[in-house]
Amino acid sequence: LPALLRQLDFDRMARYRECLDFYQGRHWPGRPRRGERRLTFNYARAIVDKVTGYLLAGASVQVAGDETPAGLERARLAERALRRVEAANGVSQLDFETELDCAVLGEGAYRVAWDAAAGEVRITAPDVQGIFAWRDPADPNRLTAVAHRYRAGEEELIEYWTPGGFELWRGSTLEERLPNPYGFIPYVVFPNVREPKQAWGSSDIPPLVEANRELNRAFSQLSQVLELSGNPIAVLEGVTGSEDITVEPGAIWEVPEDARAYLLDLLQGGGVALHTAYIDLLYRVLHDLGESPRTAFGHNPQGLSGVALNTELDPIARKVERKRRIRTAVYERRAWMVLQLLARFEGLEAEGLRPVMQWGPVLPADRSRQVQD
Questions:
Q1: CA pair distance 123, 119, nearest whole angstrom
Q2: Is 146 helix (H, G, I), strand (E, B) or coil?
Q3: How far apart are CA 139 and CA 65, in angstroms?
Q4: Residue 186 near residue 112 (C-beta atoms within 8 A)
Q5: Is residue 138 classed as helix, strand or coil in its secondary structure?
């Protein structure tokens, strides 16, 4: 198994590294040339963080059962137990960090297991760079096996889970092989945005790369022009030497009669306006590709509200809705695992109960307009 994992998913791991580097602000390729100015404005990171904040707004998992008084009571007790587990594991912060990872890398994962020493359920988010999944060819959403590779100190450990068995590898040695104590694979592996006919998902970063790099280049170029304009270049025509020529208040230049001296004006002819117009165009491209209008960042000079504001924010709402369709199954599956472990190790009555994902509104609501209607 360890030798097999070293030969798998080279393209996926390379994609992870590229997307993570860009998210962390490493936008410029190679080393800078002598005198080259490289400004970095990490709009890709800002857009990813913004969409993730919209995604998790008002998210919670409820527990539903049958409509009998006994069923409703069991659902209430199960939901209370679920909230206790979420609070103990800091699920709100864990979900935000995992969703950021998922948006950057293209995939996310949760692990739900029983901690025998602490006597409680542990929810963790393993690094997907160490996750390897095998799926049912007829149903790619169904996992048939998961390998989880990670480091514990100086040692490399691998957990290999199937519905019926569990293996623990330490380095290249199989240390333990047992029946699966849970009866299910305790991992949820999910895509950020699903690509048709593909097992793995896609990151939010690649569509933003070219526009963000060009924006950095345009800003760097404009910054250089403005700096040179603030420190004028002296141009001398018809002069063979330029000793003692300085640009400063009160300076006196002695030049031949037919010579000409002047300061180079880099801003003449509306040059700066061309730069800023191009930067504004890049802004629009970047926000269009990221499906995150400027209004989502608080830019609302027209004072839009109600339906007009919702129309303006519709692109980010559609993007969040696509992600929520995937996450609904993810968070319901995770909650189901928690209930199953509580039923197995704490005696919770979970038979007939089902988790139901609830989402808050993506867009702000105009309460006063609703009351008026």
A1: 13
A2: strand
A3: 28
A4: yes
A5: coil
Hey, is 166 helix, strand or coil?
A: strand
Closest CA to 265 of 310, 312, 231: 231
Residues found in the chain: 373
- Give, in degrees to the nearest 5, the angle at Cα 241 between 240 and 244: 155
User: Reduced to 3 states, what is the DSSP secondary structure of residue 19?
Assistant: helix
Q: How many CB atoms lie within 10 A of CB 5?
A: 16
The single-letter DSSP state of residue 242 is -
Closest CA to 71 of 354, 370, 369, 363: 354
Contact 12, 5 (CB under 8 A): no
**What pLDDT is recorded for position 245?**
62
- 199: exposed, middle or buried (C-beta count within 10 Å: 0-12, 13-18, 19+)? middle
- What is the structure's pLDDT at 138? 83
Q: Which residue has the tokens 């623990």?
A: 168
Question: Do the beta carbons of residue 261 and residue 207 sit within 8 Å?
Answer: no
CA 239/CA 222 separation, integer angstroms: 31
- pLDDT for 361: 86
Longest dimension (CA), the chain: 106
Q: Which two tokens stand for residue 178?
A: 């047992």
pTM: 0.84
Minimal CA–CA distance to 239: which of 227, 221, 215, 255? 255
Residue segments in the chain with a per-residue pLDDT below the cut of 50: none
Residue-wise over 303-333: b if at least 16 C-beta within 10 A, else e? Answer: eeeeeebbebbebbbebbeebbebbbebbbb
State the Cα angle at 212 between 225 and 39, rounded to 5°. Answer: 40
pLDDT value at residue 98: 96
The dihedral formed by the CA atoms of 22, 328, 349 and 123, expressed in degrees to the nearest 10: 0
Beta carbons of 228 and 244 less than 8 angstroms apart: no
Per-residue DSSP letter, 164:
S
Half-sphere exposure of 369 (CA within 13 A, CB side): 8
Give the closest residue to 181 by CA, choosing from 339, 334, 340, 350. 340
